[in-house]
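Trying the structure run again after the queue cleared.
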Amino acid sequence: MNIHWTVQRIDEDLDSDPVIALDCALTIQGRIEVEGEKAGQLFVWYITADKLDSPRAFMELWDLDGDVCGVYEDIINPGHTKFREPLPRMLRDAPGLIVVDFIALRPAFRRKGLGLEILREVVRCCADHRIGAVLLDARPLQRRPGDYDEFDDEIRELPWNDGEEDQDRLMNHFRGWGMQRLPRTRFMVCGPGVITGERADGWPPAPIENDWREDDDLPF
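Done. Tokens:
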């Protein structure tokens, strides 16, 4: 299994080195190949910030992107004063998050244990020493608004049951990976060490493209 990465920096502090910057936000996309065949794709956010104890920690970074802002609104408590537990405890010493938006596999590559293998590679390649928690969006891919056309190959043959039933099934599957549900959210969460004890020698996993645009040729 191999992942070809594309990395874009979305925060506005382009003068600082993201390897050492206190505040940094990246989008990380990957094309998954197995024995030379296209097996699927994935999308990840990398977000780390200084001053985690502030009620508005990360806010300027989260607000850079509408989808990222949606994650923020889900993982903050109802009073908008801190992240939902156990995130504050997990991020105390390493105030950064890897947010796995999706891992989408084509039908021929499912039920082979690839999902966990891919998540291990995501954490190994994308989580440096600043990352204290890994969030995984547990929404079924086929239940995301508008995503049926975008992920036609990956959605094919997925079950169409009750939406909550499909999400509960996925969450139970991810619990087998050592993750737990972030209460009252669509996310599963764990520390990076639960997924893998290894970290890549080089970070990020590919050169950062500061001038990437949506109409560029993506690796998918």
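The first strand starts at residue 2 and ends at 9. Worth checking whether this holds up in the mutant runs.
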